[in-house]
Design brief:
single chain, about 100 residues, alpha/beta, Oxidized Rhodanese, domain 1, two-stranded antiparallel ribbon, about 20% strand, globular
Length: about 100
């Protein structure tokens, strides 16, 4: 299940979803969506218990591949999980609030 950048932004702004960035630390440090929580994909399993299963969650990475894996795993575990279509590249191209840049990463 995917959300467009604008759909995800609306849900997050309304407090209806948590946005989790699963990219590596160097990617997150270079540029990120304001208000996103950073949990690298490799550490996601150990942090799963800190994610509220009663609240929708939107996973994001650079283009959507890694976050799609996280979304699938969490949906199978019973979470209301979504993948940000096109990742942070699509978010940034959509003109939504973004700190830093993903152009070089």
């Amino acid at each position: 299940m995917e959300l467009t950048p604008h759909e995800a932004a609306e849900r997050v702004a309304a407090g209806d979803a948590e946005l989790i960035d699963v990219r590596e630390a160097y990617e997150f440090d270079a540029g990120r969506i304001e208000g996103s929580r950073h949990v690298p994909l490799t550490e996601l399993a150990e942090f799963a218990q800190t994610i509220d299963p009663a609240r929708p969650v939107v996973f994001v990475c650079r283009v959507g591949g890694r976050s799609a894996m996280a979304t699938d795993a969490f949906r199978q575990a019973g979470f209301d999980a979504y993948n940000l279509a096109g990742g942070v590249l699509a978010w940034e191209r959509s003109g939504l609030p973004f700190t830093g840049s993903v152009a070089d990463h």
